[in-house]
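Handout, tutorial session.
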Amino acid sequence: MIRLGYKASAEQFGPNKLLEFSILAESLGYDSVFVSDHFQSWKHTGAHSPFSLAWLGVLGAKTSRVLMGTSVLTPTFRYHPSVVAQAFGTLGCMFPGRIILGAGTGESLNEVPATGIQWPEFKERFARFREALTLIRRLWREQRVSFEGEYYRTRHATIYDRPETPVPIYVAAAGAVVAKYAGRTAEGFICTSGKAPELYRDTLLPNVTAGLQAAGRSDGIDRMIEMKVSFDADAARATEDTRHWAALALAPEQKTSVEDPLEMERLAGKLPASETAKRWIVSTDPEEHVERLREYVELGFRHLVFHAPGPDQERFLRLYAKEVLPRLRARFG
């Protein structure tokens, strides 16, 4: 089975417009809706950043079928893991079988402005992440949890409202170490498209498999990828739409430690349109578009969540549902 979802871009749209788009996505046959969990956006001018957990509750009440989750939330700095466990326990009770906790190690852009912390190195971020997910799982399984970790503590903590089957946790990874951890522990793996093909083929997916094997787990993990797509009948429009997300084209060393949206906007503004489009599948031909998506499906990704960069999301959703989704399902689903 292949799942085809919609990425609700909370950095680009306010909560009400985003809700309209996501309700429309369900009505058009998309299988899932994943929302970013940012405190701040990739840019300052014309930006948005609605609170994902409140927004997911409204989306669940306004829809009946789509899977819903965060892509991704950081359960280590702005949130204490016990609060994340409580929030997703509640969502899981209200919308059983439809909620996913997508989690990652975080970005300074979101965590530093909200907390004033000194942004730690990857070793500490990953250690916090592992400890946070361990605590969250214990809170979903046990009662009166007293936890003494290196970074987090609880005392006789109980999550009273939680679904009988715990909410699935999907782990986002951009490198080998976290990908292997996802394979060892998670129900799903998340990454994003538009990077060098060998990253997926030689690093990420093999390490997910290695993690599964190391843990002796059967291979039921959901391999999910956020697909950066700009599809339109007008080629110039499809290319120009990517400029809103110019920051994605910055190299990791240019943006990893940037915590100010104004600075991120300044750096991204220097990039020409030809550069901003590199991370995206830009196409006007549905057959060509499906062919370019094929390589990801054949690598093993079975859950494609489509992120479109343009301001007219309704236009994209309808056009994609008409021209691309049926072709993908006919070919791969």
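The second record follows below. Compare its token runs with those of the first.
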Amino acid sequence: MGINNSKYWNEALETQSRDELEAQQLKDLKEIVQFAYDNAPYYKRSFDAAGVKPSDIKTLKDIEKFPFINKKTQRETQGVGSFLGELCAVPEDEVVFISTSSGSTGVPTISPFTAKDFDEFQDTEARWFWQVGVRPQDRYVHALNFSLYVGGPDVIGAQRTGALCIWGGTLPSERLLWVLKTYQPTVIWTSPSYAWQLGEKALKQGIDPKKDLNIKKIIVAGELGGSIDATRHAIEELWGAQVYDFYGLSDIFGACAAMCEYKDGLHIAENHILVETVDPQTGRVLPPGSKGEFVFTTLRKHARPLIRFRTGDIGWIDTTKCKCGRTHGRIHVLGRKDDMFIVSAVNVFTSDVEAVIRGISGITGEYLIRIFEKDFTCKYSVEIETKFDNKQSDEEVATLVSNSLKARIGVKPYTVVVHKDGDLNTRSEHKSKRVIDERTQKPE
């Protein structure tokens, strides 16, 4: 849909007034809630038990009357009554694609799409690619896992922009670097960790990402790093390229939100997703702009509608008009609810620690957090790597890291363990595991 001389993929949609957007959201919300009630056994049972019915939706705020669902709901209903389960609202012969979650927080869950769902999914992906500046003259490498991963098909969205697309997948680093050097692509999408690691490996092979490669834009997703300024700037400096963060959920579709050129949060596809923010403990709905757990309701996905899905992601949404001219809200993601821990009454996110680690010179940027109990209180330790040419002693590095964490977060780590470059074993070609929770009694 994009026009070569336009900054928007769909200008009418992306710049419509909040009143127009919310009027369309309400229309779609009424339709999808009724559709879910009529066609998905779980929603019929759940709504009836809660004493609510689709006709109760008169305003967008009325969604608050309806019950939540979460990953546990998906697991418990998956495969019940049919292969697709009780949350599915269409017969299997209308489903053309399924992806699965990584299973990192439990049993993998499937995400089904009708042909219309999938087409709208890819149109949204094209919108994000266009938003970060991908154009027909670009060469794009899709370096994401294609095996059941919902981000795999997003390459189709890139093709819709007219860019030349290279379906890389999870190639070994040496092979991917060969692709980057030989084909000279201008855009790549991978995880923040892998973007950093790939740049490091290039340098060790005598390849300067800034001079020998032609990458101008790096899209990252799957981890929080792209929204952490220190991490994003470190990757940008390493590659001499602009880094843009995308955010997606296997439960909905590939990238549901993406940065624009101003990088002030991620524009979320509000024509597809109604966003609420709730108190992570009580579920109480919070005013717009408040920090809490994101709750998403899909407005147009018919294969498996999600009505008030608790994402487990913590952040806030800004619905004011962006400098780029787009009116769809921008989400600011702080981290996973599961990755937050409390030390001395201070809420600590993995992203807080990463922001500090990636901003310290003389260390590689790799890190591991261990959460544990000592004297009946929660403590944390941090393990890092020192660069091979760092002249400081391990004790000096540990003190610097500890004091920097204290200054940023408010609480020092119990210990800082310093490893040699490459010894931490946190590098991964997809999502890196950076938190080990050793507590015997973990909070709900």
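Points raised in discussion: The chain has two domains: 9-336, 340-437.
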